[in-house]
């Protein structure tokens, strides 16, 4: 399938509404963003040539980092090659053999890998289970160096971390708090993330986010106090030992951030559409779990049921992904809808009617 990030795909000569990407704001094809990226490629070439600490630096990176820090209200920010590399880098820089890292069981794989590489003790708590977390914190009361890391929005369930309770527990136990805003950046909190939406930004020590999702580009940021960012800059192996992003990517990210700042309510509008769709799905008898975001899982249970539903929706002009184990727990195969702010009401109506027909089809088989 071509044009994989576009809102509309052509498949077998048919037009499909694409609800299978993380391009939540449609920025990857925005003309101003594409212009900025192509201008940078023409003027500065296709590659940066080296790591930032060698010769791969340019004023563009620093300009983007200053802009991100000002957007998030942190002292400092660092741009790293990808979200995966960013999680490995900050965890490697801040955690070691004497650290205990508390981590939600459904955290992204890059967090799991980052903890393992850091050699810290990995303590996983049940998904969003604050009672379990409190018990584990109590059990490790005497450990000096403690970090808690969680996704703010979970990618397969579309639910949110209970950040208020997490902040309270971290303060009570003297734990450094890191938040991976990969699926919230650009959308929640006028684009700043879930922490800002809940008024808790200052209680989060490390804000991490990707430019590869709602920003429509590539790369990631770590934003924090200047001393923390300096540690990641000096010791983060995914930063130090990897070639910096091409100038065109940085310029595209900069233009995307400009759009996000200029349109602070896009994310809220998107979340409103998701709420409207969840209500319709619920009335049709579909289960959307704990979804509160633009990511809506529709739980199907068996793999073959999820695949049948995906194929049926394709015939109605809606493309969604069918997510199966081992990506999700056994018996929880699901459709994953990621709604986008560049959808218009007509598109939303198409999705509603496609699911209405799917519900009828399923009933006729029962
Ligand atoms: C996608 C994602 C990442 C990795 O980001 P990339 O830029 O794709 O490497 C990290 N954390 C979470 C929660 C993600 O969803």
TrEMBL record:
A single MF term (Gene Ontology): pyridoxal phosphate binding
Transmembrane portions of the chain: none
Annotated PROSITE patterns: AA_TRANSFER_CLASS_2
Key word Transferase present: yes
Domain Aminotransferase class I/classII large: 15-350
Its EC number(s): 2.3.1.47
Gene Ontology terms: biological process: biotin biosynthetic process
Highest taxon, organism lineage: Bacteria
Region forming the signal peptide: none
Keywords, ordered alphabetically: Biotin biosynthesis, Pyridoxal phosphate, Transferase
Pathway assignment: Cofactor biosynthesis; biotin biosynthesis
Cofactor: pyridoxal 5'-phosphate
Catalysed reaction equations from the record: 6-carboxyhexanoyl-[ACP] + L-alanine + H(+) = (8S)-8-amino-7-oxononanoate + holo-[ACP] + CO2
Family to which the UniProt record says this protein belongs: Belongs to the class-II pyridoxal-phosphate-dependent aminotransferase family. BioF subfamily.
UniProt-listed PANTHER family: 8-AMINO-7-OXONONANOATE SYNTHASE, CLASS II AMINOTRANSFERASE/8-AMINO-7-OXONONANOATE SYNTHASE
Subunit structure: Homodimer.
Name of the protein in its database record: 8-amino-7-oxononanoate synthase
Species this protein is from: Desulfobaculum bizertense DSM 18034
